[in-house]
Amino acid sequence: MENKNAKRISEINGDIIIAGAGETGQYAIEEIHKSGEPFVVIESKYENTKELAYKLGDICYIRSDGTDEDVLINAGILIRLPYSEIPCLHVRKWI
User: Fold this and answer.
1) Tens-digit pLDDT profile for residues 42-95
2) Which CATH code is given to the segment(s) 2-89?
């Protein structure tokens, strides 16, 4: 499932990324799912991604810490500029 997600996530181009699938995040995810917009969830807890998959079916997710800079850089949310040590927020929809 992780390799399948990696391929699908790489195909999503600047769409919605939701960091956290707790109670509030799940509400946002369900609403966005209803809209049909492509999205990716970053969530570290297996139970939360399992619950989402049960409720919504096949969703794209990264099972990792949404506060980790490297995870956010790999997801395309943060970019590291060549002249700076500090990552900068990449312009995307952020929830």
Assistant:
1) 889 999 988 888 999 888 888 888 778 777 777 766 666 666 666 555 544 444
2) 3.40.50.720
Give the predicted TM-score (pTM) of the model.
Answer: 0.69
How is residue 30 written in tokens?
A: 């369900």
**Is the separation of the CB atoms in 79 and 73 below 8 Å?**
yes
User: Which DSSP string corresponds to 24-91?
Assistant: HHHHHHHHHHHHT--EEEE---HHHHHHHHHHHSS--EE-S-TT-HHHHHHTTSEE--TT-SS-EE-S
Which amino acid, residue 73?
I
CA dihedral 2, 80, 40, 45 (to 10 degrees): 60
All structural domains of the chain with their residue ranges: 2-89
Burial of 92 (0-12, 13-18, 19+ CB in 10 A): middle
